[in-house]
Design brief:
By secondary structure, the protein is α/β, with parallel strands linked by helices. It has 8 helices and 5 strands, in the order βαβααβαβαααβα.
Length: about 200
C-alpha cells in the first residue's frame, strides 16, 4: 500500500461517532499513528473553553463550534494528509447532523474523502473505559469519575447515539459500523484502515 509520505491530493476527513467512552479517541489515536492523519478529538476544543464557560452555555457552544469550523477549514486547505475527528452525535438532534456536515464541507469542497466510522459498545464496557488512562490524561473534565459515570448514564437515557438503519443507504466506501465491545483498539483501527483503504504512514505494515 502507498505510504503517507508519498501522498498528494486533498486531505481526508475520517469522522468517528458513537456514545461517550465508546473508544472514539483511543481508536482515532491508533489510526492517526498508523496513517499520519492528525487526531482532532472533540475535547481538544471542549477542555479550554470549560475553563471559562460552563458546558452547554451559549458562549460554550459558540466558541467550541467556531474553533472546530476554523480548524477544519485550515486543514482542508493545507498540505496535511487530513484529520480524524471524534464526535458524539445525538441522532434525534438536527443541529448535530448539521454541524457534522458543516465541519465536512471544506473537505468536500476540495474533493477530499469524507468518511464515517461508527462505534458501538455496551454501557458496562463504556463505564469501564471511562476510567482509562488515555481518556483521563486527555480530558481533565472527566477526572471526577462519579460525575463522569453519571454523565454517561444520563446521556444514554436522554439521547440515541448509535444508528438504527440511518446509514443503510450509504456506500461501504464511506461508512463502517463496528461493535467494539469485545474488540481491542488495535483491531478496530486495523479494520478501519483496511476497510477504507487508508494510506499507511511510512513504517506501518
Amino acid at each position: 500500500m502507498t505510504e503517507a509520505s508519498a501522498v498528494t491530493g486533498p486531505p481526508t476527513l475520517l469522522r468517528i461517532i458513537g456514545p461517550p467512552a465508546v473508544g472514539k479517541m483511543a481508536v482515532g489515536h491508533e489510526i492517526a499513528a498508523r496513517t499520519g492523519l492528525r487526531l482532532f478529538h472533540n475535547h481538544v476544543s471542549i477542555e479550554p473553553v470549560l475553563r471559562y464557560f460552563d458546558f452547554g452555555t451559549p458562549q460554550f457552544h459558540r466558541l467550541v463550534a467556531g474553533f472546530r469550523r476554523e480548524l477544519m477549514a485550515e486543514v482542508a486547505g493545507s498540505d496535511l494528509p487530513g484529520l480524524v475527528f471524534t464526535y458524539v452525535l445525538a441522532f434525534e438532534e438536527s443541529e448535530d447532523h448539521r454541524a457534522l456536515e458543516e465541519y465536512a464541507a471544506p473537505f468536500r469542497a476540495r474533493g477530499g474523502r469524507v468518511l464515517l466510522l461508527e462505534l458501538a459498545a455496551s454501557q458496562a464496557e463504556r463505564l469501564r473505559r471511562n476510567e482509562g488512562e488515555l481518556r483521563l490524561a486527555e480530558k481533565p473534565s472527566k477526572r471526577n469519575l462519579a460525575a463522569s459515570h453519571r454523565h454517561v448514564a444520563e446521556m444514554d437515557a436522554a439521547h440515541r447515539m448509535n444508528s438504527e438503519g440511518d446509514f443503510d443507504d450509504w456506500p461501504d466506501s464511506e461508512y463502517l459500523r463496528i461493535d467494539n465491545t469485545h474488540r481491542s483498539v488495535a483491531e478496530v483501527a486495523e479494520q478501519t484502515i483496511e476497510h477504507f483503504g487508508l494510506v499507511r504512514a511510512a513504517g506501518d505494515r
